[in-house]
Amino acid sequence: MIIEVQQRNYYQVLGLQADASQDKIDQAYKRLIRRFDSAGSSQSPQIQASLKAKIALLQEAYDTLSNKEKRDEHHRWIEEQGKRAPASATNSHPAFLKDWKMPADIKNKSGNIYQDYFGLSEKPFDLTPDPKYLYLSPKHKEVLAHLVYGIQENNGFLKIIGEVGTGKTMICRSFLRELHADFSIAYIFNPGIDELELLQTINSELGLPSESSSKKKLMDVLNEFLLEERKKGHRVVVIIDEAQDLLPSVLEQLRLLSNLETETEKLIQIVLIGQPELDKVLAEEGLRQLKQRITIQWELLPLNLEETRGYIQHRLNVALGKGKVELTRPSTELIFRYSKGIPRMINVIADRAMLIAYTQNTKNINCKIIRAAVKDIGGLKPTVSWVEVFWKFVVPSVAMMGLIFFILHDFALPDLKTNPGGDKNIPEIIQENPIDLSNPGQLVPKEFAPKPSPLEKLDAMEKMEAVLPPENLAASDALVLTQPEKLVTYLSSLSHEESKVEAAKWILEAWGFDQSGSERVDGMALENLEMEFDLSSYELNGNFKRLTNLNYPAILEVALPNSMGTKYLALTSVKGDRGVFGSVDKLEMPLETINPLWTRKAIIFWKDFEFLPGDKLEKGYEGKEVIWLQKNLRLLGFFMGREASHYGEKTEKAVRKFQRKNNIKDDGKFHTESKMLLYNLLDIYPTPKLIEP
After folding, report:
1. pLDDT value of residue 328
2. pLDDT value at position 300?
3. Cα–Cα distance measured from residue 196 to residue 190, given in angstroms and rounded to the nearest whole number
4. What pLDDT does 571 receive?
5. Closest CA to 535 of 475, 605, 476
6. Which fold has domain 1-110?
7. Pairing relationship of beta strands 364-365 and 326-327 according to DSSP bridges
8. Do 303 and 311 touch, CB atoms closer than 8 A?
């Protein structure tokens, strides 16, 4: 099916020649989309509307040239018009972007053709990587947590890979938004550069002189900048998107960059984001040194069916489309089958389906509309469902086996209706040897069997493996787990909400609330802790060292493998390399047992006993709270001098010393982590301890 609005040479739209490869088409599209995406947020509504219209045209050009059938048809259309893409066209600044005027029929519209029909605030399934549309599935949470953890721990090299369209760029942009002001970022999205251009681009992104053609001069300027940033307490991060297209010589130059360091730490961190082909590039013999320096790596996998449903609904909700678009469950499953869980393809199919629904004057997107959208897009093949496998392979195989058995039974096997000895027939033998019904549980259909508790399920698994230790309970009546697989088995029998409720109850117990209070914890478990029990929540990404520094019981987010979802566990105490955790049962395990499953996300609940003023308690603040702070810092040996209600240099210096001593960010501002620690260290405030003294 050819779109009727082919009124432009799409090669000129993207600034390409007619023989451009798919890689060049992709690069040109990404470059132009990124320019418009970054420019539009600060413009007036009129200019934003113009940019949206241009982006829509870019999208149409990309969709057409990325599809073989449509591209061939477009070539024929160009021939008919007698207009060939000029040989001098480049992929940098297409002329139409400067001179193009919006058609009159869309000049007064706010954006997409079906947007007003559905009552949406904007186009929900656009391909531009807008961070506000980020859907944090368990897979995306893991990748984001690894990025944040790697930056916090100052690891040299980090690597994130994922198939085309899985959301790597979206994760990268969201990650950049999460970084604080004390980071200097060089973001490189064009990998088609050599070693010299790499250094020039990095320096340019960091605001340094970049015109030199000497790699040594560029490196010297960069090294001096890195040392200055380190003195200021800042970190420098280089993020390279589409890293699989980097030349081996450029990757080697990156390795040399990572040699810029002091005696104690790296001065620059490098994040490589690319497709799975990046692993093949790094496997080359000449890059083995670089591969060894990658300390954190993660793969972003496609979404499963449930995550696909959540992804579609999330994007509709962000565009204010909740309840305005009727997307049936079978149609969502069909989108998943054709998209294979890849977010970009979900967007393409859903966007085309909404356009077709608009043309049919319906807001109910059913399977018929999805199939029409898939046919319109072209080139998509669905994943094979188990039902199709069953009818295509299993049923014929069973029928064939039945036929073979029938033939053997009637023509080759002896008559089994009577005993071969001729004394007794089979019914008499069964009557003399009845089935033992003393264990009827073996005969209960699976769907009626009671769901085992986590403890029963774990116990059954232990017996099957024949490795049940003489005592599986510690002296404190805690269930001892030593392997991640056992923990997965334990948690898999709990739903997401059930695990959240159980973890919340242990946090309440740690804070001394009685059982009658914990009975009020329901599906809104974490929210209830704040609303009903006067506790504040603090969410962080880190490791066990950071948790022990803060010294509060915490709720950990755990991601189970094979798309089994995320669960929660309460970490109530740590002793050495072992921890005590809370779920349905009290659990005890080495920290290394839960470490591979923990997403690095933790939620700490703490109490602001003095109701201190938000994040305002810093240099320049005036109030009695400053005197309270100075007195308590004096008790701990950090503040010297006369107390005053002004937060001045002496107070800031004392807070810095306090922060450094307790291994938290030493910015001199008395914010959340500093408050939590001070309450925890002062005996007059009843706070639970993760590590008991």
Report:
1. 85
2. 83
3. 14
4. 95
5. 605
6. Helix Hairpins (1.10.287)
7. parallel
8. yes
Pairwise CA distance, residues 605 & 533, whole Å = 10
Tell me, what amino acid is at 539? E
Classify residue 391 as exposed, middle or buried by CB count within 10 Å of its CB (0-12, 13-18, 19+): exposed
Report how far residue 683's alpha carbon sits from residue 557's, in angstroms, rounded to the nearest whole number: 30
Distance CA 426, CA 413 (A): 16
Rounded distance, CA 517 to CA 22, Å?
Answer: 61
CATH class label, 138-300: alpha beta
E strands, 109-254, are 157-162, 183-188, 235-240
Helix, coil or strand: residue 336: helix
* 126 Cβ contact list (under 8 Å, min separation 6): 55, 59, 347, 351
H-helix segments, 340-483: 343-359, 367-377, 386-389, 395-411, 426-432, 454-465
CA–CA separation, 462 vs 482, rounded Å? 12
**Phi, then psi, of 95 in degrees rounded to 5:** -65, -35
CB atoms within 10 A of CB 243: 26
Residue type, position 96, single letter: F
Cβ-contact 40, 51 below 8 angstroms: yes
Cβ atoms of 556 and 691 closer than 8 Å: no
Instruction: Look at domain 112-124+303-383 and name its CATH class.
Output: mainly alpha
Q: Which residue has the tokens 């609904």?
A: 313
Closest by CA to 220, choosing from 209, 206, 204, is: 209
In sequence order, what DSSP letters do the residues of 228-249 get, joined into one string? HHHHTT-EEEEEESSGGGS-HH
Helix axes 367-377, 329-339, angle to 10 degrees: 20
The two three-digit tokens of residue 535, written as one number: 């506790």
Alpha-carbon distance of 552 to 260, in angstroms, equals 37
Which residue ranges of the chain lie beneath pLDDT 70? 1-7, 34-53, 81-112, 155, 177-181, 384-395, 405-476, 514-532, 563, 693
Which tokens is 15 given? Answer: 């600034």
First and final C-alpha spacing in the chain: 73
Q: Quick one: pLDDT at residue 73?
A: 82
Tens digit of each residue's pLDDT (9 = 90 or more) over 40-55: 444 455 555 566 667 7
Inter-helix orientation angle 22-40/45-65, to 10°: 170
Topology agreement, domain 1-110 and domain 112-124+303-383: no
Cα 364 from chain centre: 30
Q: Which CATH class is domain 624-681?
A: mainly alpha
Give all strands (DSSP E) within 216-293, no chain letters. 235-240, 268-274
Could you tell me which of 34, 324, 311, 339 has the C-alpha nearest to residue 187? 34
Closest CA relative to residue 617, chosen from 668, 557, 691, 562? 668
pLDDT of residue 470: 38
> How distant is the alpha carbon of residue 268 from its chain centre?
24
CA 556 to chain centre: 16
For residue 93, the model assigns a pLDDT of 44
Distance (Å, whole) CA 538 – CA 677: 13
With H, G, I as helix, E, B as strand and everything else as coil, classify residue 321.
coil
Ramachandran class of 641: left when φ > 0, alpha when ψ lies in -120 to 50, beta otherwise: left
Query: Which residues are within 8 A (CB) of 546 and not within 5 positions of it... i.e. 6 or more apart?
Result: 540, 663
> 505 to each of 80, 514, 552, 570, 691, how far by Cα in Å?
72, 10, 15, 9, 19
Domain 457-606 sits in CATH at 3.90.70.10
Give the residue extent of every domain in the chain: 1-110, 112-124+303-383, 138-300, 392-427, 457-606, 624-681
